[in-house]
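Re-running the complex after MR caught last week's input typo. The corrected sequence lines follow. Everything else is unchanged.
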Amino acid sequence: MQLAVVGLNHNTAPVEVRETLAVAEAVLEELYADILRNDRIYEAMVISTCNRVEYYIVTDDFLCNVDSVLKIISEQCRIERSILQKYTYIHCGENAAKHIFRVAGGLDSLVMGEPQIFGQVKDAFENSRKYNAAKTFIRKLEEFVIKTTKKVRTNTGIGDNPVSVSSAAVELASKIFGSLEDKHALVVGAGEMCEIACKHLRGASIGGITVTNRTFEKAERLAEEVGGSAVPLENFREELSHADIVLSSTGASGYMIEASDIKPVMIKRKHKPMFFIDIAVPRDIDPAVADIENAYVYDIDDLKAVVESNKKLRQKEAVKAMEYIETGVADFYRWVESMKIVPVIKALRESFDEKRMLELDRFCDKFKVSDAGERRKLEYLLSAFMNKVLHTPLNNLKDLAPGKERYSLDEAVKIIFDLKD
Amino acid sequence: MHFDFALGAAILAFIHITLYLFLGNKYLQHLTNMFAVLAFLLFAGSIATHWKHFGHFPSYSMGDLFAMVSLTLTLIYLLLYMKYRRPLLGLFIFPLVIILSILVLVLPSAAPKDAAGASSIWLFIHLPFTVVGTAFFIFATVASIMYFLQERELKRKNFGIIFKRFPPLNQIDRLTAINLLCGFYFFSVGLISGFVWMMYEPDRIGFIMPKMIFAVITWVIFGLITYLKKYRGMTPRSTAYSTLAGFISVLVTYAGVAFFLMG
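Corrected-run output:
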């Protein structure tokens, strides 16, 4: 049995194609049923996010069966096969396994190392189990993927350094204040950038947010959305002394906040630190504010520099993450190899069982054992003896199976039966 | 023997915290703390052995004093770690512990001839409280240095190792404030008990000895910083500068002790 994947992602397909192929949760049951209708596809798992749609199948003839998956996708999404083939990638065997490990670890994501994909992959595995499309292979794959991804996220810095302007600003704020729970942010402007930044600040559990904007209604709307309060633009300077973080992104042509505004504010605040985030172009905050003690001013270029440096760090960490993934894939395939011996073990056990029953019948006939209780005792004895005898060789067989070493006959017998020299 | 091993453990703790600074691996942090615990136990063991061997509490030589300071610094590092999880304090503390430990090994540890006479109960209050107070002042100084370094990184927009590994500014400032407060409390008790001890034994130490004068200066400086910080909203940078000034005063006081040995 082999694992194969047919899919497309943000690197191979434009958003129009990705949205056409996206799989809604409501159709999952039907989709799994369609896939598994093919007798040669034993298990399946579908991942559908905004950046990727991937179909994983467990099959014994991947070329032929991947074609059947493509047919299903093409019919379900009413998309021509030729277009589909243009945007999809196909991996099989170890490459397919490596792919799912990379996806779960965030190494194949648009934003390298983003953590959401791990949750999405776990959901996909769960759905596969829910619709009876996951059996031994996919379940074991899930176990290895989760274990390896946890190692990647714990032991590497793949998700440590924020790579968006807003999250970089929140990280900087955390470097000044530590916890933001008792801090207050003043947001000057109510545009898209401010909205994103407000959401990041909320995500960092900021104590409170005050929004101000030239159009007061917009400020009120954003404040309501993020659970803050709004003040008219004319009065926003009065709020400065309560603000630990000031984020500004307006279309104003001059400075909204001058150094002369901040000096008295600092005295009023007993010189508690203030963090100014200026994401407006032209800038809203006078750069001279940075010269004031305990005032830290970062403009859009500074934040972009943080983001770029963090991206490089994540690239470095991706190399470390790949080492964990290689190990995870190797471990998984060791398990896959060990499974090849399972039919042999099963046959061996059945053969022993058959012989055991045969011998029991012969014994009972020969020594005239007619009592059911006596027969049960003998059966128990034989069964216990057989299990004892088979335990070591069967375990050793399982351990030996994935190895690439070749043994001579006498060596193999010694290893399997645990015989000393 | 214990002391050699304690020094070894402190060196290992320093090596691991330095590696943690550069590599950021959490296991290195755990190893640092493990060696710090080991160093603490060995320092305590060494002092106890010394006490048992000489039959009096080891408080008569500069070496004895430095051994106590090393023990206290290690203990406070561990307590602060348990409370605030900031292992990088060790980056500055362990070198100091190492230097002090080397001095303990180098300096003579013989008790003066009149040692038996100097076993007043006031000594047993004065000495530990002064040492613990001093150790907290040292931690406040270390936190101040960390504040300067982190603030410089933030102002210059350098996002290197210091930015990444050092604690946030607010937390460093809080650490400074707590260490100042604790230091001031312990040092005050130590100083007052020292004065009482002097009244009982006026022949031994005079009120106008340099070490007494500098001990009072140290107490005044740290008292002032603690007051201004708590009630007047002293800026973190000014606190950091003042704490450094206080630390110099601590050094001078201990130099006074070094010259006059007793106390």
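None of the earlier attempt is carried over here. The two ends of chain B are 26 Å apart (CA to CA). DSSP finds nine helices and no strands in chain B.
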